[in-house]
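User: I'm putting together notes for a lab meeting next week and I want to include a structural view of one of the chains we've been expressing. I don't have a solved structure, so I'd like a prediction I can at least talk through. The sequence is below, exactly as it appears in our construct file.
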Amino acid sequence: MAGIKDKADQIVKEFSQFDDWMDKYQLLIEKGKELPEIEDSEKKEKYLIEGCQSKVWLIPEFKDGKIFFRGASDALITKGLTSMVISVYSGHTPDEIISFEPSFIEEAGLSQHLSPNRANGLNAMLKQIKLYAMAYKIQTTPKNE
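Assistant: Thanks for the context. Below is the predicted structure for the 145-residue chain, given as C-alpha cells.
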C-alpha cells in the first residue's frame, strides 16, 4: 500500500498536468464520480461535516490499526474534494494521519481556486479526519503508557 505522502504526491501530479482551472474542475468532478456510494441509512448527523455549505458525510472505520474512510456529498465539486481527501488519508494509522500536513492541496493548485465556502468545507473535512485519528489513537493507547 502506498504511503500517505506518495498518495498526496500522486494527487499533485494529476492536477499539475493542467494549467487551466476548468480542467482541474473537471478532474475534481471525475474524482467525485469514483467515490463509492454510501447507503442513505449511513448518512447520519454524526458523520456530517460542520462548516460545509453542501452536505458532506465522512464515515471512519478503524480496522487492524488503520483508519479507513468512506464519504459522500450532495455537490459535484465537493464530492470530488471528498474523494481526493479520502484517497490520501484512508488506510493509514492514526499517527500517520495526525503527523501529515495537507500541503498537497496547495501544491496541486487547488486552494487558490476554491471559493471561500469550499475552502472552509475542505478545511473542516481535514480537521475532522485529524480528530478521528486522535480519537482512535486515544482509544487504542494502553492506559499504563
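A couple of points you could mention at the meeting. The helical segments are 4-16, 21-34, 76-89, 94-99, 104-107, 116-140. The first strand starts at residue 56 and ends at 63.

User: Perfect, that's what I needed.
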